[in-house]
Amino acid sequence: MQLIRKSLVATAIFSVCSGAMAAGFQITEHSAKSLGRSNAGEAAVAEDASVVAANPALMTKFKRPMMSVVGAYIMPDIDIEGTTNNYFTTGGTPVATYNNDVAPNAFVPEAYYVAPINDQWSWGIGGFSNFGLMTDYNSAAMTNPLADKTDLKTYNLNPSIAYKVDDSLSVGFGINIVYAEATLSSSVPAGLDGSTLADAFGFDGQLITELKGDDYGWGWNLGVTYDFSPATRIGFAYRSKVDLTFDGTIDTGILPTAGNLLLGLDPTSQSAAFLAGLPAKFDEKLDLTLPAIWELALNQQLTSALSLQASVNRIEWSDFDKLVGKSARGAMLLDQPENWKDAWYYSAGLTYVASSDITLRAGMKYDNTPVRDEYRDLRIPDSKRMWYSVGMTYSFSKDLDVDVSYSYLDSKKASINEGEVVENGSPSLTGSFSGEMSGSAQIFALQANYRF
Fold first, then answer.
1. pTM beyond 0.85
2. Cα dihedral value 95, 96, 98, 103, nearest 10
3. Which of 82, 103, 138, 367 is buried deepest, with most CB atoms within 10 A?
4. C-alpha pair distances (Å), 394 with each of 112, 202, 352, 397, 401
């Protein structure tokens, strides 16, 4: 049962487009313009059609239809270092391990369209992601029994409408249709030295468990903007939580074979008997809530060319308090506490209109982690981070402009202590890890905006 529990616990990450680099597994790469300021002022700045993702109330600021297409290339550099101990792969002796670049590079595409209906009403639609993660340890990693590959994606379709109440106040509302899918696996490390029990059993490099699942869910979002003057605007945006129940399949890999082999060594072992009786595959259901997000933002014109943007964001990760998994027949497979906490991030940036063709941006963000130290694991090696960003817009004409941005993320080192060598009196096939993670990331974004 321990192996099944460990594989299901990994689903802690369920949701979203590969390669998230905001805290937890949130994705914030919605606009190259916004990324150029480290997302500062996003809910109060109406620069392109990505306002659908930021604050739908801002759609009333557009006098012509506009389309924005965004591509963000995320280059994480996350390293894991420590010791692993596993009765089957290390003989019960702690072994030093170092895993370099456990999160692959990822490309995040998004697209938006906004159009006025009349002087008061506007509408828009966007395709983007709000959460996501991908980690992939190499085939020889000694930590693979705990976490091998995690490939999680969500896709959010967000039709929206906005109403201009008067020259100062606008409101907006949207519906979010979310599709999520994931593949999560654990495996025996490849290339064992031949002296281990796993190698003797012929399990070198073999699959331990693999979970696949998907689901549709829905939520809603709203936004408000208020212009105190032509120079000062505040914006508030809220995006609701989304409840998902993943229908999936667990491939039990080597577990039935391992159970039979272990029964040969100890015919009284209840854990071995349980593993031996597992089917090759079985259906499961897993409940997960994607957290609500809100932002309070300011856009302040300082001079005719220079403006200040700032944001306070809260992600209600405390909704991710536990994972509950059941078999297709209703039997409880998992009731695992996660105990994440709500997280805040704070950002500030500047926008400078250098000429009629060129606009420059820069910003910083403090991005807190929702993961408590005692719950950090190898699938979500998350910690606090600082963002440093720059960006530029070049206008080719009154209809077409292109944005580029670059962000550098510096993550704080953090400890990871996961798993047990022996659990409930029996050796655990997943083993344990004790060590730390360190990381950084670079994000390059390119965006094209066209007014019709």
1. yes
2. 50
3. 367
4. 19, 60, 12, 9, 6
